[in-house]
Specification:
The structure holds 2 protein chains of 2 kinds.
Chain A lengths: L1 H29 L8 H29 L9 H34 L15 H30 L7 E8 L2 E6 L25 H23 L2 H17 L24 H17 L8 H26 L7 H4 L5 E4 L1 E5 L4 E7 L4 E5 L4 E5 L5 E5 L5 H8 L6 E5 L11 E7 L1 H10 L13 H17 L1
Parallel strand pairs in A: 1-5, 4-10
Antiparallel strand pairs in A: 1-2, 2-3, 5-8, 6-7, 6-9, 9-10
Chain B lengths: L11 H6 L4 H31 L6 H7 L10 H37 L7 H20 L30 H30 L12 H32 L10 E2 L2 E2 L7 H35 L6 H14 L15 H29 L8 H24 L1 H7 L3 H31 L5 H27 L21 H29 L64
Antiparallel strand pairs in B: 1-2
The chains are: A alpha+beta, B mainly alpha.
Bound molecules: protoporphyrin IX containing FE (HEM) and copper (II) ion (2 copies).
One copper (II) ion binds next to helix 8 of chain B.
């Protein structure tokens, strides 16, 4: 390895020395000035422009023939319109591209410098300039009008009976949610996210489960703080000093950490309480819960505790929120259906996607449907479309029995961004109904086992990532 | 004003380091930018290796990147960091600081007939802020978690939350600090440029006689002064979200197993602020290049630039419009579709002044007598890339179409051709053209030819095929694509693209060698090697403080009297008084 670098460096030096020789030679041999470009050189460069132009155009055509389709044919209603608009725009820019580049390279080749010529002195021509202001304006007006018409169609309101599907992004996978029989999504709140409630859907059980979880976390951190060896020893020493001191002033030290220190005393039976606390500390020091933290780590734990308590407060606020007795919002979450790994849509039915994000901005990109929308934490977004070709038909069209539609992430979101995908299946209404009936309803169960679906797909993701490394 | 420049002895430090002289500062900017450019090109070769041959081991990666490329395979986080820093350096350090810093500094005083910038001291400060900002950006590559990795646009929440990715830790903080320093540098420079152009023009140099370079630099500086402060506010708010627990850009976030205590902010706010700078920024990059090429093309076609007034008008038009198009980067953020329509309209309007410029360049060549100096080759290349890349902008500006190609390789192709290649070509044209003015020596012409042809072939070879990759649906900022078979055969283009990238990078050695070697050993320059009309060529080859040994020159005509039939010579310097009866511009 080192040898290789050395070799490269040596070669580089040799090349540089050679170059400098050629350089010096070319100056002295020609015996002329750098700024005097010979007629031969001028003709050569002009000719090279033409040659370059031809090569450029030929490669363009080859690329166009080989790779010029827009990936797969459009699989949605507006997708077809988008492709038509694309064809239209492409046609215009091809024409302009060829005309302008040809003029540029052709003029360059034609008017190379000759000593016996003089350039034509022409500083401006209002008529010409008007022409190339007006023509582009007209063409652009058409482009704008056509483009905005398509834009308005694709961004209009979704119809009443559109199927609604929520796509939820997080580092680094997608989850789809269907509203269930009632056709309405349950409310969601990021404070309620737990392993069993990955979307943070608001239900009474969901709130309760989140509270239980947060309480457990708080208890755990509290324990870690309370059983920190250094702080326990310090407290013990402080109490001992105080007892010997006989001054009887109040125990300070570490009561600011508060929890579980209620042994701190009133004046009356102060001494007794202190002794009890000492015994307690001795007992605690013997338990296997004792742990040792650096001062920084200890402070981090305290911070964490503070944040957890704030989190608990927010959950309690949700629980206490008064919906004027109308709890339907809470209930409509109960029958929501949540799927991972792949999601299905019936062909020919309009679907309105609602996008939410858990952590950072992602982008739901479905290239075969010519559809894309960012998912933004805290700001729900929408996109509607009507799939027109089932997965099976597309497989036939592409003569690829393996083909699948995909949902990709198209906004950089971290290390595994490049592999954040979900399969989309487009199928007949019957097949869709059958699939849907197999999907369980969303219910937050008490207890700690994780829903199977989630585990399975998480595993799958990590597998594909390791496989790809 | 003293006619004679003062000739006091100077120490090394005051001459080469803390110089107040605009010519020296210009060289400082240029050399810094070249160093930064080399770094950015190397980073791109590194990640192009991964994209061309995913998963394959390259010893060179491990040599340079160490733990970021264990076993010679680029790490996934490192990939994103390299892409991010590559983009940041190219856009800001090479094509903003480097391009404007070099040529605005060199040419503004020389071409308007001023002894120096309005404030030499601020000018020096501008360079040193730029320098330290560059150093910090490079240092950020060596932080524990790696450099900023969220893309050159550093969108929050990704960039705001250290737990979101390793690059959002220390690396991100350094990125933000570097950016603030950078903006200070740009503002100091920009204000200085504008003030100098407005106040220090020599006798006879009316605004309508300014060379187009100066017009371009002025519009650029105004854009910078108006838009960079907005970037600072965006960046400062982001810093506060990162360090002080504010939530300007954050809301309802659950990450790292924890529900964050943030509500009410909006990540989209950042994007509005960022692109309010971001779009003018692409013109801050491009306009100086257009100004340089106007000058180079007129000089070497031996013809007046066609449609001077229209060229100035379109510069102003583009400058103005660039402030009301930023939303075209945000069509798929959930923005109100009607607002989207407005941005479609304003964005496509920019195509009109752009078209005017392109046609005017081409007409300038028509019936010219074209000398293909290396600078001229690059300027013609610029016109081609400006047109080719600008045209795909029409697709991106059409919101209905952008939905499908937003953030794909199609965008990468678009902005690299229209902004990357054009501006780099303009910068190189400027270097070849004004090298004699900067260093008193000539660069080698033949090496210049070789450099140009390698660069344009490889440039198009890299970016043109990317259109097809993007249209097939390949997202940008992906570490690899092997998990998607719908992309199919388009991915065969990846090794080809990477090969062009490597050859193109190596081809830049022609330039680097030529540049540094010629500084010391190049042929001595004559006073006006290109037989040009502008004032900088009336100064002595040897640099003097105050630029002109004698009194300041007086201007009697515009800069574009090439091949004027009234005169015998094929060029008429701006200092030439009107012949009797001649109607001068
Ligand atoms: C002429 C100089 C131009 C420069 C320097 C330039 C540069 C850029 C850059 C840097 C991007 C960034 C993409 C990203 O990182 O997401 C971009 C995107 C874009 N450009 Fe340009 N551009 C230019 C001309 C145009 C023109 C003439 C149009 C329209 C007619 C246009 C329309 C767009 C649009 C709509 C996007 C957003 C695409 C997307 O994010 O999907 N640009 N351009
Ligand atoms: Cu992503
Ligand atoms: Cu823009």
């Amino acid at each position: 390895m080192k040898l290789l670098i050395l070799l490269v460096v040596v070669l580089g030096l040799v090349a540089a020395v050679q170059l400098s020789k050629v350089y010096q030679l070319s100056i002295s041999l020609r015996g002329k000035r750098e700024e005097d470009i010979s007629e031969a050189d001028n003709r050569l460069n002009g000719g090279l422009f033409l040659a370059f132009m031809v090569a450029f155009y030929v490669s363009f055509v080859v690329l166009l023939v080989k790779y010029g389709s827009y990936g797969t044919p459009p699989a949605s209603e507006h997708g077809a319109a988008v492709d038509r608009l694309m064809d239209f725009n492409m046609a215009i820019i091809f024409v302009v591209f060829f005309i302008v580049n040809t003029l540029l390279f052709w003029f360059s080749a034609k008017y190379y410098h000759r000593a016996d010529r003089k350039a034509r002195f022409i500083a401006h021509d209002n008529r010409l300039e008007l022409i190339w202001t007006v023509i582009p304006s007209v063409v652009l007006a058409i482009i704008i009008a056509y483009g905005l018409q398509t834009w308005n169609e694709m961004t209009g309101e979704a119809s009443e009976d559109a199927l609604r599907v929520e796509l939820y992004s997080k580092q680094f996978d997608w989850t789809a949610r269907y509203p269930g029989a009632d056709g309405e999504f349950g409310q969601a709140n990021y404070n309620l996210i737990t392993p069993m409630n990955a979307l943070g859907i608001v239900t009474e059980e969901g709130v309760a489960a989140a509270l239980t979880e947060i309480e457990e976390k708080i208890a755990k951190v509290e324990e870690e703080i309370n059983y920190e060896k250094g702080h326990l020893l310090a407290e013990w020493a402080a109490i001992e000093a105080e007892l010997h001191d006989d001054h009887g002033h109040d125990g300070h030290g570490h009561d600011d950490h508060g929890h579980g220190h209620d042994a701190h005393a009133d004046h009356g039976d102060g001494k007794q309480a202190l002794e009890a606390r000492m015994a307690e500390i001795e007992h605690m020091l013997e338990s296997d819960k004792v742990n040792i933290l650096t001062e920084a780590a200890y402070e981090a734990k305290e911070d964490k505790l503070y944040r957890l308590i704030r989190h608990r407060q927010r959950i309690q606020e949700i629980r206490n929120f008064d919906f004027d007795g109308e709890l339907t919002a809470w209930e409509s979450g109960m029958d929501d259906q949540i799927v991972k790994g792949e999601f299905h849509l019936p062909v020919g039915r309009e679907v309105e996607f609602v996008f939410r994000s858990r952590d950072v901005i992602h982008s739901a990109y479905m290239p075969q449907f010519r559809a894309q929308m960012n998912t933004v934490p805290g700001v729900p977004t929408r996109f509607k479309m009507t799939p027109t070709i089932t997965t099976d038909s597309m497989r036939t069209v592409l003569e690829n029995p393996e083909f699948d539609y995909v949902l990709l992430c198209n906004k950089v979101c971290g290390a595994a961004h490049f592999n954040m995908q979900m399969k989309i299946v487009i199928e007949s209404q019957e097949a869709y109904d059958a699939w849907m009936s197999e999907q369980g309803e969303f219910i937050v169960k008490e207890g700690s086992e994780e829903p199977e679906m989630e585990q399975a797909s998480e595993q799958k993701e990590s597998q594909t990532i390791t496989a790809s490394l | 004003m003293g006619a004679q420049a003062h000739h006091h002895e100077e120490s090394f430090v005051s001459k080469y380091v803390f110089s107040h002289d605009h010519k020296m500062i210009s060289k400082q900017f240029l050399v810094t930018a070249i160093v930064m450019g080399v770094v950015a090109v190397m980073l791109s070769v590194f990640f192009r290796l991964q994209l061309g041959w995913p998963g394959e081991s390259f010893a060179i990666l491990e040599t340079f990147l160490g733990k970021w490329a264990p076993g010679g395979v680029l790490d996934r986080n490192a990939y994103l960091a390299l892409v991010t820093i590559h983009g940041t350096i190219m856009v800001f350090f090479v094509l903003t600081g480097g391009l404007s810093g070099t040529f605005s500094n060199l040419l503004i005083p020389l071409q308007i007939g001023a002894r120096d910038m309005a404030s030499g001291f601020l000018n020096m400060l501008s360079y040193w802020f730029f320098f330290f900002s560059s150093v910090i950006m490079i240092l950020s590559l060596f932080t524990e978690g790696g450099a900023a990795s969220g893309g050159w646009t550093v969108y929050p929440p990704l960039s705001a939350l250290p737990q979101a990715m390793p690059g959002s830790g220390m690396g991100m903080t350094l990125w933000l600090i570097s950016m603030v320093l950078f903006v200070v540098s740009s503002l100091l420079g920009g204000l200085n440029y504008v003030v100098t152009i407005i106040n220090l023009r020599t006798k006879g140099m009316s605004m309508t006689r300014l060379p187009l370079t100066i017009w371009a630099f002025m519009v650029t500086a105004i854009l910078g002064v108006l838009s960079f402060p907005v970037l600072v506010s965006a960046v400062v708010l982001l810093l506060m979200d990162r360090t002080m627990g504010t939530a300007f850009y954050l809301s309802d976030i659950f990450i790292g197993g924890e529900a964050l205590d943030v509500t009410g902010g909006s990540p989209i706010l950042y994007q509005h602020l960022f692109w309010f700078l971001g779009h003018p920024e692409v013109y801050i990059v491009l306009l100086p290049a257009l100004g340089i090429s106007s000058e180079v093309i007129a000089t070497n076609a031996r013809k007046p630039i066609f449609g001077y007034k229209a060229m100035v008008g379109s510069l102003l038009g583009i400058g103005f419009l660039s402030f009301i198009v930023w939303g075209h980067h945000m069509f798929v953020t959930g923005m109100n579709p009607f607002l989207g329509s407005v941005f479609v309209f304003t964005t496509l309007l920019i195509a009109i002044p752009s078209a005017v410029k392109a046609f005017n360049y081409i007409t300038t060549l028509w019936q010219g007598n074209i000398r293909f100096t290396p600078a001229m080759l690059f300027s013609i290349g610029l016109v081609s890339t400006f047109v080719t890349g600008g045209l795909t902008g029409i697709i991106l500006a059409d919101s209905a179409l952008d939905v499908n190609v937003h953030d794909t390789y199609f965008v990468v192709a678009h902005f690299h051709i229209v902004m990357g290649m054009s501006a780099i070509f303009g910068m190189l044209a400027g270097i070849y053209h004004w090298f004699p003015k900067m260093f008193g020596r000539m660069m080698n012409t033949k090496l210049g030819f070789a450099h140009f042809w390698v660069t344009i072939v490889c440039g198009y070879g890299v970016f043109f095929p990317m259109h097809f990759v993007g249209i097939a649906g390949a997202p940008r900022r992906y570490y690899e694509y092997s998990n998607f078979d719908f992309l199919g055969s388009v991915m065969d283009l990846q090794p080809l693209i990477s090969t062009f990238a490597i050859i193109g990078a190596i081809g830049q050695l022609f330039f680097l060698f030529n540049f540094f070697y010629s500084i010391f050993y190049g042929q001595k320059s004559v006073q006006n090697p290109w037989m040009s009309n502008t004032l900088e060529w009336t100064t002595p080859v040897r640099h003097v403080h105050g630029n002109w040994d004698g009194p300041l020159p007086e201007v009697h005509r515009w800069a574009y009297d090439y091949s004027n039939p009234v005169h015998d010579a094929d060029f008429v310097p701006q200092t030439t008084p009107a012949l009797s009866g001649e109607e001068v511009h």
